[in-house]
Amino acid sequence: MAVLTEIEEDELDEEPGEVIESAPPQKIGEERKLTTNSPIKKKLLKRGLGWETPNFNDHVTVHYAGTLLDGRKLGSTRVSDSPVTFTLGQSEVYAGLDDGIVTMKKGEVALFTLPAAESGGIPRGTNSVVQFEVELVSWITVVDVCKDGGIIKKIMEKGKGNDRPGDLDEVLVKYQVALVDGTVVAETPEGGVEFYVKDGHVLSRLPKVIMTMTRGEKAELTFQPQYAFGDTGREAGSGFHSIPPDSVLHVNIELVSFKPVINVTGDSMVIKKILKEGEGAFTANEGANVTVSYTAMLEDGTVFEKRGIGEIQPLKFVTDEEQVITGLDRAVATMKKGEKAIVSIHPDYAFGNVEVRQNLVIVPPGSKVVYDIEMIDFIKEKAPWELTNAEKIEVAGRKKEEGNLLFKSGKYQRAAKKYDKAADFVSEDGSFGDDEQKLAKSLRLSCWLNGAACCLKLNDLTGAIKFCTQVLDVEFHNVKALYRRAQAYIETGDFLLADVDIKKALEVDPQNREVKVLKMKVKQLQADSDKKDAKLYENMFAHKTKRLKVEKEEDEVVKTEMDNVGDSAAPSNDGSCI
Questions:
Q1: 334-388, pLDDT tens digit by residue?
Q2: Where do the TPR repeats start and stop (predicted)?
């Protein structure tokens, strides 16, 4: 039993100051240890507000009163009724007390009992302890932004929510930059200044700080010289007063607001800047029926189309159906109901290099376009689980036919997506009855086969092999699957596997002309490959033979030279050496 107890205690080891997460909330009047192995006890006298607690390095403001058990006073802020402010983690009031304060909430009052420290004339005995009654008045969160002390942020006023700007976002900030002596060297106009985080502003590391802030947050920043203007300083100009070399800068900053910017396509060719957040958590995905209003402009602001403005009706369309330009289609699929945004679209996702006549003006070739757009409403396409079995089969059949039309038009990428979606609606989930299962299976296999055909057109050989293998796992004798997988194997240069699939296909359908043609192709390609290999080996052996011959000749030359050296070194007839 002793061993078991020791193991359990080891498993419960915790760092000083760590709160036992599994412990129930402490009741008023209850006393408990801070952690299992902590010598410090905490008795809750008054509950605090909220759930947040300070961290080490934060600046806390507290009232406290310390006493020994015999009644001797260790100091109190209550006498002057002036709370004290200090940095947590530096034991500025009493050794060990900081470990207790980091467990407190704002406004909380607690009594801490802890071992007496050998300082301040306090005798340290076996049972010598001190007690501190502490009220946590407030604290300022301190953040070491770069983790090296180079930029310190003190949060003077917390912002709203948890969202923080990213490097693409547009922010509105107010700031004032000053030297240590208080000389202001730069500040924004009264309304603040807008800029994109990635573009930077004032100080090169300011964007890093801004990305740690929330809307409405106010903070005091301290920039060490290496993160300001270093040992060169800065001359006056561009809104700055001169800054001496090796200057520490103090910055008061407020993140007034920010507009999220989304890289819709991942290649920075369709950029969406959100002006007004939409409702809820759902967006208009692919296949949704959407209703939007917008003003469409060229990059210089020339308007070429309006929808849903004034008496003009809004535009209704289905996303991912090529009913509008690609960039607009992709951007709308990311929007929530009620969302307003500015969408900037590169020519490759707009009208390309052709001239297009629109309602108001002609859009020149290669034009970048901008849409000031609002998502009025959308109806998402129903998911498979929201449909009856009959509806699933109907939707799958319709999507398959849409895929066929796209395939015939040479739009293989979009056709593949249609087939993939169709197969999802008739997936083998056990919900279909016997008759329905036959229809669902037939549709599913057909979509996989068509998906393989798309992959072959797109040179996605791995995808083609995958789809065909899925079919063959269900119908091992499916000739189309064997034929298309053989085609993919041929393109990868795996003639052996291609030949295996062709033989299986001919066993099922010996008269299939297309498979026979493919067999002849494999035979010819294999013969060509064999010839190439033979030529390669022949060249390798010829090179090796030539190299051996050269090496032999070199050996003979060396031997001859060594013999000559030996003859030259031989003694002469008179016994002297040459």
A1: 999 999 999 999 999 999 999 999 988 999 999 999 999 999 999 998 888 889 9
A2: 479-512
Classify residue 530 by burial, with Cβ atoms within 10 Å: 0-12, 13-18, 19+: exposed
CA distance 26 to 137: 20
Of 501, 421, 413, the C-alpha closest to 457 is 413
Exposure on the CB side of residue 515, measured as CA atoms within 13 A: 24
How far is Cα 91 from Cα 66, in angstroms, rounded to an integer? 14
Nearest in space to 145 (alpha carbons), one of 229, 198, 221, 196: 221
Q: Please tell me the distance from the alpha carbon of residue 458 to that of residue 262, in angstroms, as a whole number.
A: 29
Please indicate, yes or no, whether the overall pTM of this predicted structure exceeds 0.90: no
Tally Cβ neighbours within 10 Å of residue 479. Answer: 18
State how far Cα 352 lies from the chain centre: 30
CA dihedral 139, 143, 148, 149 (to 10 degrees): -50
On the 0-12 / 13-18 / 19+ scale of CB atoms within 10 A, 558 is: exposed
* Mean pLDDT value across residues 233-255: 91
Query: Tens digit of pLDDT for each residue in 134-147?
Result: 999 999 999 999 99
- Contact in structure between 258 and 172 (CB atoms under 8 Å): yes
Strand partners, 33: 41
The per-residue pLDDT for range 281-296, each reduced to its tens digit, is 899 988 899 999 999 9
Chain mean position to CA 531: 50
Q: What is the rounded distance in angstroms from the CA atom of residue 243 to the CA atom of residue 178?
A: 9
Assign 305 to helix, strand or coil.
strand
CA dihedral 150, 156, 162, 166 (to 10 degrees): -40
Strands 289-298 and 315-318, bridge-based pairing: antiparallel
Closest by CA to 379, choosing from 470, 299, 464, 284, is 284
What pLDDT band is residue 116 in, cutting at 50, 70 and 90? confident
Residue 554 burial (10 A CB sphere; 0-12, 13-18, 19+): exposed
Cα–Cα distance, 391 to 528 (Å, whole number): 52
The pLDDT of residue 434 is 81
Task: Give the pLDDT confidence score for residue 2 in this predicted structure.
Answer: 37
Compute the CA torsion angle 110, 116, 121, 124 (nearest 10 deg). Answer: 160
CA dihedral 522, 526, 528, 529 (to 10 degrees): 130
- DSSP-derived 3-state class of residue 315: strand
Backbone angles phi, psi at 253, to 5 degrees: -135, 145
Q: What number of other Cβ atoms are within 10 A of residue 77's Cβ?
A: 18
Tokens of 177: 């930059």
Q: Which residues pair with 464 in a beta bridge?
A: none
Average pLDDT rounded to a whole number, residues 480-501: 95
**Cα(443)–Cα(401) distance, integer angstroms:** 11
How large is the greatest C-alpha to C-alpha distance in the chain, in angstroms?
129
